[in-house]
Design brief:
Layout (H helix, E strand, L loop, with lengths): L5 E10 L8 E6 L7 H11 L4 E5 L7 E6 L4 E2 L3 H13 L6 E6 L2 E8 L2 E5 L4 E6 L1 H7 L7 E9 L4 E6 L2 H6 L4 H8 L9 E9 L2 E10 L2 E5 L3 H13 L4 E7 L7 E7 L5 E15 L2
Parallel strand pairs: 2-3, 4-6, 11-12, 13-15
Antiparallel strand pairs: 1-2, 1-17, 3-4, 4-5, 6-7, 7-8, 8-17, 9-10, 10-11, 12-13, 13-14, 15-16, 16-17
Helix pairs in contact: 3-5
């Protein structure tokens, strides 16, 4: 056993103000320093959330370091773990309304206005275009239900960003894990891949779904900050700027709201509400 219990917080990120059980769940361990790689991964598998994070010693002039694990592998960057980890760091007096988090993708600044947190994404890299028909097939749609081109984009976590022709197409999409790996696999660590479907629904509003592979299944993420920042990077690459409210998660009964902004000079920010819903201890 460890000499003292490991404390953790349970949060919902990109939550809605009137629903404490909206948004994307996250577990944040207050101190992961000294834990072995085996224990870091085993704890993430124990909680079995899309991601579990561990606050560690900072690097590169950051206020606090963070390591992000899915149940199967470590990630260089993910959106809702970044916001939730910053919120816990502030609670632990390891930062204020500005928290600089170091992670494998680099140092990410995160700012707060009360319980609302916003990250500034690293510069995006837009990769080569994918075959529209292939990506459509991977998510159970016809080729004419996507608007090309479809690209891999990364602001720290590479994903396929695909514009849907209609909200109805987004609602009908069903991921096929085998086809997603065949057509949309980008060599993501752990062998997983993610397709982010989005459609503008009005002036300054977007609806999105994120379908990703985990093991032999294709499942859905209720709120995907990294994909939202990748969408922002793609919008910047085609000369668009502005602010959008992004709705996600309704198909899995976890309604979520993400704020996306792209400045005139291409800086991308993603924000949302962070709510703590529980805490506890683990003994090893």
């Amino acid at each position: 056993m460890t000499s003292s219990p490991l404390r953790y917080r349970l949060l919902n990120v990109f939550a809605q103000p009137d629903d404490p059980f909206s948004g994307n769940p996250l577990c944040v361990f207050e101190d992961g320093s000294g834990l072995s790689e085996h224990h870091l991964q085993a704890l993430a598998r124990q909680f079995n959330l899309s991601e579990t994070t561990f606050l560690v010693e900072p690097q590169g002039g950051a206020d606090v370091g963070v390591r992000i694990f899915t149940p199967h592998y470590e990630m260089a960057f993910a959106g809702h773990p970044t916001l939730g980890s910053a919120a816990v760091a502030r609670e632990l007096a390891r930062g204020g309304d500005l928290v600089r988090l170091s992670m494998p993708a680099g140092v990410i600044p995160v700012t707060a206005d009360g319980p609302d947190w916003t990250l500034t994404a690293r510069p995006g890299v837009v990769g080569p275009a994918y075959d529209v028909a292939d990506i459509a097939a991977a998510v159970g749609l016809r080729a004419d239900e996507l608007v090309g081109p479809v690209h891999e984009v990364s602001t720290g976590s590479a994903q396929v960003i695909a514009q849907a022709a209609s909200v109805e197409a987004i609602h009908r999409a069903v991921g096929d894990a085998a086809l997603m790996r065949r057509y949309a696999g980008m060599g993501t660590r752990g062998g997983e891949t993610l397709v982010y479907l989005w459609c503008e629904t009005g002036d300054g509003t977007i609806e999105a779904r994120a379908l990703f592979t985990q093991g032999s299944a294709a499942i859905e993420d209720p709120a995907t900050g990294s994909a939202c920042s990748n969408l922002g990077a793609w919008l910047a690459s085609v000369g668009r700027s502005g602010e959008w409210s992004v709705a996600q998660g309704s198909q899995v009964d976890r309604p979520s709201t993400l704020r996306l902004a792209v400045s005139d000079d291409g800086v991308v920010t993603v924000g949302g509400l962070v709510r703590q819903v529980g805490w506890g201890e683990v003994e090893l």
